[in-house]
Each structure stands twice: as C-alpha cells, then as structure tokens.
Amino acid sequence: MNYVLHEYAPSGNCYKIRLTAAHVGVPLERREYDIMKGETRTPEFLSNVNDNGRIPVLATPEGLLPESNAAIWYLAQGSDLIPTEPFAQAQLLRWLFWEQYNHEPNVATMRFWRAFVGEDNLTELQRANLPAKVAAGEAALKLMDDHLAARRFMLDDRFSLADIALYTYTHTAEEGGFRLADYPAVSAWLARVAAEPKHITLDA
Ligand SMILES: N[C@@H](CCC(=O)N[C@@H](CS)C(=O)NCC(=O)O)C(=O)O
Predict the structure, then answer these.
(1) Residue with CA nearest ligand 1 atom 2
(2) Cα 55 to Cα 8: distance, rounded to the nearest angstrom
(3) How many Cα neighbours within 13 Å face the side chain of 13?
(4) 11 phi-psi bin (left φ>0, alpha ψ -120 to 50, beta other)
C-alpha cells in the first residue's frame, strides 16, 4: 500500500501525520511544497491535490485526504492509538476538535507569524489580532496544563492519537513566543510523549 504525504515539512500539521505513521509503522512517500512561495495555491495544486489550497494532504489508495486530523484518524484506525470503547473514543475526538479550534489557530498561528512570516511583515489585521491570539494560546496551554496535572496523557494513562495531535504544535510553542516553563505539567507530558517507543522528531 502506497501513501504519499503532500506537505511542508516544518508544519506541525504535517508532522502529526509523519508521527502517526511512525507509530503505526506505515511508510510514507513525501512530496514537499513551499507554502512561503505559494506552492499550494497554484492552479495545478488546487485542481489535483486540494481545492482548499493547503497542506497536509495524505494520498491514500482510496483517494486524497486533506485535514491533518482526518489523515491521522485514517492511519491509526485499528491501532492502539484509538481506543475502542465509545466514550473513550469520543473523548479522543473531543481533543482532536479542540486542537483545531482552540489550540492550533492560536499556538500554531503565533509560531507561523513570529518564526516564519516575521512580526514586521504582518498585515495590519494580523497585528491587531496578535494580542488576542497570544491570550487564546496561553488559555489553551493553561487548559492542557490543568488537565495534565493529574494525568500521564490526554486520555489518562493511555498514550493515544490525542497526544500526537497536541504534541506537534505544543512542543514548538516557544517559537511562537509562549513560555513552556509556565506550564510544568505540559512540559513533563512533552517529555513523556517524546520518550514513547517509535517517536520521531519534527526534522526526522
Ligand atoms: N485544518 C488544516 C489546516 C491546514 C493548514 O492550515 N495548512 C497550512 C500549513 S500548516 C497551509 O497549507 N498554509 C498555506 C496556505 O494557506 O497557503 C489541517 O489540520 O490540516
């Protein structure tokens, strides 16, 4: 079975897919697009890969799958990364949706604005939104810290897809200006996730 990951390697959304694939032992072919040069906005990419103009997109034998959390869910089906009990599975989905609504749009966007675009190059609208993004990112990290204070992983004692989905942009949060030292339970959890067998780093 051949899987091709259409990606921009430094993106945490793309790293999520590589990390999940490593955990479940699925080899990935990788195809790189430079989002800083608009390579996901070309007519060819829009008509052949993703009409939403974004990576990651996982090409599977069944078809193309945009959206990182859909792709990791697909790859992890039937593995230990997804619990089989309905309530535990719903809790896992809760964290995947929360990641996309409360965490990624703030923690990842601040990283992108500060470490990739550069604060001097932000639009007026982005600059105006910056304090709200910082506050919302801090709130997301605080919520994780409170949650993890009494738990080893997002789903209690069980390492799962929720940890993978949240690890990738949390471990790079300092590139967006967040101070991980302010979140000791998150920092300890990051070390636990990175110590899992089969873990791979962002630059692997
Ligand atoms: N919700 C999507 C977000 C995808 C996304 O925002 N991709 C960014 C990089 S992380 C991108 O392709 N940006 C390039 C662009 O918008 O032109 C996911 O989880 O996959």
Answers:
(1) 67
(2) 7
(3) 25
(4) beta
CA of 157 to the centre of ligand 1 (A): 31
Q: Which atom of ligand 1 is found nearest the CA of 52?
A: 16
Largest CA distance in the chain: 49
pLDDT digits (tens, 9 = 90+) for 122-171: 999 999 999 999 999 999 999 999 999 999 999 999 999 999 999 999 99
Q: How do beta strands 4-7 and 29-32 pair?
A: parallel
Token reading at 188: 């300890």
Q: What is the pTM of this model?
A: 0.97
SS3 of 38-74: the string is CCCCCHHHHHHCCCCCCCCEEEECCEEEECHHHHHHH
Residue whose CA is at the smallest distance from ligand 1 atom 6: 54
The token pair at 181 is 């030292």
